[in-house]
Each structure stands twice: as C-alpha cells, then as structure tokens.
Amino acid sequence: MKILVTPTSFKPDGDSPAWKALGTFAEELVLNRTGRPLAGEELVDRLAGCDGVVAGLDEYTDAVIRACGGRLKVISRYGVGTDRIDLAAAKEHGVVVCVTPGANSQAVADLAFGLMLAIARRLPLLDRTTKAGEWVRSVGGELYGKTIGIVGLGAVGKNVAARARGFSMKILAYDPYLDASYAAANGIEPAAFDGLVRASDFISLHLPLTPETWHIMSRDAMRAAKPGAVIINTARGGLVDEAAAYELLVSGHLGGLGLDAYETEPPGHSPLFALDNVVLTPHTGAHTAEATANMAIGAVRNLIDVLSGRPCPNIVRGI
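Request: output the structure for the sequence above.
Response:
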C-alpha cells in the first residue's frame, strides 16, 4: 500500500501509535513537507499511485480526485470537516471519505472559551501594553451569568455547553438536528436561530460549512444581535461575513469577534487586524497534544479499516 500523509500537525514520530500502525501497514509513505495544506497540482503529484490519504486541510477537488485514475480508495480526514472535499466526485470515483468525530472536541471547546475570555477581559491588549511598560486600567466584562448561544450542538457544542455551566451561564442552542433529550438533561434551552442571536451575549459557532450555513452570521443576522454581543467562530471560515463583522465592530454594535477560521486561509491582511476587540488565531483549535494524538490514531485506523475491507464506523454517509 502507498499512502499520502498531509496534515501539518501530524509529524513523523516513531513512538506514536498512529505512526507505528501506519508504518506497519503501508509499504510506502509520501509526506507533506511544505508545512501547509497542499494545492491542487501539489496533491495530484503526490497522490500518484496512492491507495489512500490521511488528509489535512488540502482541497480535494473533482480534478484532483479524477487525476487519481481510480487508484485512490479512501480519503481519511484528520478531523471532521469535509467542506474541502468534493463529496460528489468522491462518490463518482468510488473514494470512501472518513472522519474522526469527537477527536478534537475538547480542544476546540477550550479554545472557544479562551477566545471569549480573551475578548471579555481584553487580554491581548493588556498583555501588549504591560510588556510595553504601560500600566493600563481597563474595564472588561464577565462571562459569569451571561447568556451563551451555541450554534451547532454536536460534540464541540456540547463541550462548550459543559464549560458554560461552570460559569453559571444561561445556555441557548440552535441545531437543525438538536438532541432534545440531551438538551433537557443538561440545562440547555433549544432556540430558533433568530431568537438565539437576539438574546445571546456570546454566540459560539460549531457548524459544518455547507451552502446552507455559508454566512449564517450575515450582516442582517449580526445587526439583529444584542448590542455588545461577542461572536466566536472556531468551526469553518465561511460561517461569518467578515466584511460585515468589521463594519459592525467599528460601529460599536458588536462587542467583539474571535476567529480561528477564516473565509480565506491564511487571511493575508485584513482590516480586522487593527481592532483591539478582535482576537485571531491561526486555525489552531485542534492543535493540542491530546487532540492531535486522537485525530492521528482515529484517521489511521479509519484508513486501515477501509483498505483492509473491515467495517469502518466513521465513513461519511449519504454522498
């Protein structure tokens, strides 16, 4: 078996159970040594002759999948997002797509709360000015007792809710497939999206990126938000209209914005960079030692199961 491995945080490690399993299974490994997700032609070159790929945030377009000539059997995502995989093309060419649900949910939930706290207490500004020799007196806000609106109550959203309970927050949740029994058992109030946006002090996004969720935080949605609301996106970049968010931050309607995912990655130069009530991180939600280990072993097991003809519980269905 010949396997391509592309995730930037899945680095070769002889002591890693994932790398040991992969090295035992595959006769040849092709590694991504660029330090970034791969573009189309780069993928095509490296996928030549490959039976499977442990996939990072590369773009698996129809052209890339078609260029594999039917040899590629599985794209095993190191994570859960499939918005960068042409699922219709994968189905057409018989390529199985797998994900690692829940593997990074604790890490992403931690970052979501870290961004909320950083914005509420203006931590980046205070860190920067203190290191510059200033002694700034800044009045921040508290999370305690506030209302959090969780948009997407999957594995990450549920872990965000668990953290919110520790801050005695009122928890609202919108999810088209909301688990009502779970919500009732965990003090979570189901809400329509519009009602959640209007009522929440903090809005945390945990949805996949689909045509239906693209710019779910539109200019109109953000205008309808509670004055001073803080929006957090640790999911997928296209969920937030960044240009509209900038306008509403400058006007003072929004109280803050925390982004770990962007419409274009890397984001290049954005006017958001100039705002003190914006905290930005480089799509790092899953980058903890624990999460990367979980994603690595999960993605490798999925790949080996598919290529060995064994049942795999994490295949993306309905494509």
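Residues 105-280 form a domain with the Rossmann fold fold (CATH 3.40.50.720).
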